[in-house]
Design goal:
alpha/beta, Gyrase A, domain 2, four-stranded parallel sheet, 23 helices, 55% helix, 10% strand, RNA-binding
RNA sequence: GCGUCUGUAGCUCAGUGGAUAGAGCAACUGCCUUCUAAGCAGUGGGCCGCAGGUUCGAUCCCUGCCAGGCGCACCA
């Protein structure tokens, strides 16, 4: 928790009647007043009125009278039913800035005595389909969540549950044999496989026999036909290689690429386990688990032709992950349309007596639209992640050429900014919101954007470089001097970063960190505009403020998966 | 029909059981001989979808309704 909120809560607790000290959730009750002139923290006494049978204003008076003022507290004021706390400014500046200076890249992080494991299943592309914008959201969200949980002291296992099995594999095998372009496959495997996928569906509309051919090809793959298997394996590894290069541009790595093919030989065990527990029923020729008592539609386990299904694979994966990782949490970062699917899978496991499924969570997110149409892979109506990144990077480079043509390593910085803009754009919305994708807003570098945050970081760094060339006029730090409105606003923002990280973990929601960074940067830029650093009589203290701001921006950007360029 | 998510400024979105509801974009106006103007400051702009209820207090919690998205058996 942030430094002074914690101290204020402790102070209030001691001032309360004994019987209330334990039961009140002060962390929830204590708030920051809407106007800083009212105080730094406030305790509303209204909720105690009924319990104590006294007027809120009287209770507030009583609490204020009980408080023994520590050195860090400037004063306490009672306004109506509120007890308002004013923190001593110099003390606050000192404690916040020295804490950040000491903790640096670990400021805001948590150490766990015995590290708990969290498995995060994200990105998980279907390798026969392209990395469209829909896939961007799970990839970016999952990556950020992985960093947040890691920062919060968890051992994180990043799992890419590849869609590398199923009848669509038969489609690319058939497609490749009929229209495949070997050259293109080497150059750009994902786009070539995508082209085959789209063409397959187009041709299959007039020639339904293609569907049969695909089914047959997949059946032969399952039987281990060496020629077909070699083809599949080649497509798979080419696709993974290309994914890895895109992931690398975004700083993403995985601990496992075990996907659907990996679980293929673990399906029979799931079916027999469900049979043994008497959960499997036959309905219309298919094997199902009835979930009436959970108020859910039945979960389909096996098709009438004997083939297993999506749910079966997820059951196998869930069981495997439990035994492999003994996780505290398993997070599935998968779109909101699949909420029912996960409810069903989790319900089946619960019925099978696997109580550990309570640790499993679906982390849903809203749909991405392009214009007013939903993405449709089959129609080829997609935007490639790679093209978005390339475009973003190119636009960033153009801006650098126009504004800062002498910048060193322009291409690298442009990549950081362009990709930063895309990542930030996708993280700044609450994950449940549907978002409408358009290049104009995704590639905007002004206002509430990643580049704005990166720019603020670079700008502060520029002042530090400038200061290094100037004689420092003060060695004795006097934090009490940092008492202007702009400085206090900035210090308060810096102070609350640990709370923001904690909330982001609890809600599985990186958007809070993105919004926090925007506010932090606004606070910094307000300060920057109003106060001179280099050559001022508070130079040393303000440099500390700059360093702390840069530390927190860097930590926050890291949690979102963005780079923090030194210069831009 | 059932379930679920969303509904806040012209647009895109924050926000919280509490004291006057906030940003960005767009529009208009200022600010670069001074540490990066990818910036800062200002102006205008709101039945917080509608109606009840709980509460000292609701934009926030509950119920109903309206609008939109998504899902609901052999795809994943």
């Amino acid at each position: 928790m942030s430094i002074f909120k914690e101290r204020t809560i402790e102070l209030i607790r001691q001032a309360l009647p004994d019987e209330l000290q334990a039961e009140l959730d002060l962390n929830r009750l204590v708030e920051v007043p809407p106007d800083p002139t009212l105080g730094d923290f406030a305790f509303p006494a209204f909720s105690l009125a009924k319990i104590l049978r006294k007027a809120p204003a009287q209770i507030a008076q009583d609490i204020a009278a009980e408080i023994e003022k520590p050195v860090w507290l400037e004063r306490v004021a009672v306004v109506g039913g509120y007890v308002n706390f004013f923190i001593e400014k110099g003390q606050r500046a000192h404690d916040v800035l020295t804490t950040i200076a000491a903790q640096k890249e670990s400021y805001g992080s948590t150490v766990q005595d015995t590290p708990k494991t969290v498995v995060i299943d994200f990105s998980s592309p279907n390798i026969a389909k392209p990395v469209g914008v829909a896939l961007i959201r799970t990839t970016i969200l999952g990556h950020s969540l992985a960093r947040i949980f890691s920062f919060r002291g968890y051992q994180v296992e990043r799992v890419n549950h590849l869609g590398d099995w199923g009848t669509q594999c038969g489609k690319w095998i058939v497609g490749y044999r009929m229209w495949g372009d070997e050259e293109q496959l080497r150059l750009s495997p994902i786009k070539e496989l995508f082209r085959l996928y789209v063409r397959f569906h187009k041709e299959a509309e007039v020639d339904p026999a293609l569907e049969d051919a695909a089914r047959e090809a997949f059946a032969r793959l399952e039987q281990g036909d060496p020629e077909i298997y070699a083809l599949w394996e080649r497509f798979r590894s080419l696709s993974i290689e290309e994914f890895k290069t895109i992931y690398a541009r975004m700083g993403i790595t995985f601990d496992s690429y075990n996907g659907e093919a990996f679980y293929e030989d673990k399906m029979a065990a799931v079916v027999s386990m469900l049979t043994e527990k008497g959960l499997l029923q036959t309905s219309e020729g298919a094997k199902i688990v009835n979930l009436d008592d959970e108020n859910l539609p039945p979960c389909l386990i096996q098709k009438s032709d004997g083939a297993t299904l999506y749910a079966t694979r997820d059951l196998a994966a869930a069981i495997y992950r439990w035994h492999t990782y003994q996780p505290t949490f398993v997070l599935y970062v998968v779109g909101a349309p699949q909420q029912l699917h996960f409810q069903q899978v989790f319900a089946v496991l619960r019925k099978a007596g696997m109580q550990w499924v309570d640790r499993y969570e679906h982390i849903p997110f809203g749909t991405i639209r392009f214009g007013d149409q939903a993405m449709s892979t089959r129609r080829g109506n997609v935007v490639f992640l790679e093209d978005v990144l390339n475009e973003a990077s190119a636009r960033a480079l153009a801006i650098i050429e126009a504004r800062n043509p002498n910048l060193a390593q322009k291409e690298q910085v442009a990549e950081q900014i362009g990709i930063g803009a895309v990542l930030f754009r996708f993280l700044v919305y609450s994950r449940m919101k549907d978002i409408s994708f358009d290049f104009a807003s995704a590639l905007s570098f002004e206002g509430d954007t990643g580049p704005y945050v990166q720019y603020t970081y670079a700008r502060a760094g520029s002042v530090l470089r400038k200061a290094a060339q100037v004689e420092c006029n003060s060695t004795q730090l006097d934090y009490a001097g940092l008492n202007s409105a702009e400085e206090m606003t900035l210090i308060k923002e810096l102070e609350r970063f640990p709370d923001v990280v904690e909330a982001a973990e609890a809600a599985r929601e990186p958007a809070g960190i993105a919004h926090y960074l925007l506010e932090l940067c606004r606070a910094f830029n307000g300060f920057y505009h109003e106060h001179r650093v280099v050559g001022s009589n508070l130079e040393a203290e303000r440099l500390e403020l700059l360093r702390a701001t840069r530390t927190v921006i860097a930590n926050g950007l890291f949690l979102l998966g963005l780079e923090a360029p030194e210069e831009m």
